[in-house]
Amino acid sequence: MTRITITHEELSAAAELLSALAYPVRLQIIWLLAEQGEKSVNDLADQLNMDQSTVSHQLRVLRQTKLVIANRRGRHIFYQVSDQHVVHIIRDAVIHANE
């Protein structure tokens, strides 16, 4: 294994990312967006059978940690996964948890 130096700031950023992923509903949102492409808050709320305000709150956290991107079109905001790294993290975590 190649040794790399990781700074305290980098570890703090990683901890913030993992903290944002520590809620099953956030994992579900990211997974849905990865599988189905961009969705509005209402689309996600319908698919998750949750209130729109609850989904909006979770999306706000994911946006603040740059895990999802918001694109406004008219009066609607559509969300998508910012990159595939987070999808790989989730997939690997699920595999690891079920070994």
Structure description:
The protein is α+β, with helices and mostly antiparallel strands and 99 residues long. The protein has a single domain (11-97), classed as Winged helix-like DNA-binding domain superfamily/Winged helix DNA-binding domain (Arc Repressor Mutant, subunit A, Orthogonal Bundle). The chain is 62% helix and 14% strand. The chain contains five helices and three strands. The chain has helices at 8-20, 24-36, 41-48, 52-64, 84-97; strands at 39-40, 68-73, 76-81. A hairpin with a 2-residue loop joins strand 2 and strand 3. Helix 2 packs across helix 5 (84-97) and helix 3 crosses helix 4.
| Rough outline | globular
Count of DSSP-assigned helices: 5
Structural class: alpha+beta
The name of the CATH architecture is: Orthogonal Bundle
Strand content: 5-15%
Strand order, biggest sheet?
Answer: 1-3-2
Indicate the mean pLDDT: 94
Secondary-structure map:
Layout: H1 8-20, H2 24-36, E1 39-40, H3 41-48, H4 52-64, E2 68-73, E3 76-81, H5 84-97
Antiparallel strand pairs: 1-3, 2-3
Helix pairs in contact: 2-5, 3-4
Question: Quick summary of this structure?
Answer:
The protein has helices at residues 8-20, 24-36, 41-48, 52-64, 84-97, and strands spanning 39-40, 68-73, 76-81.
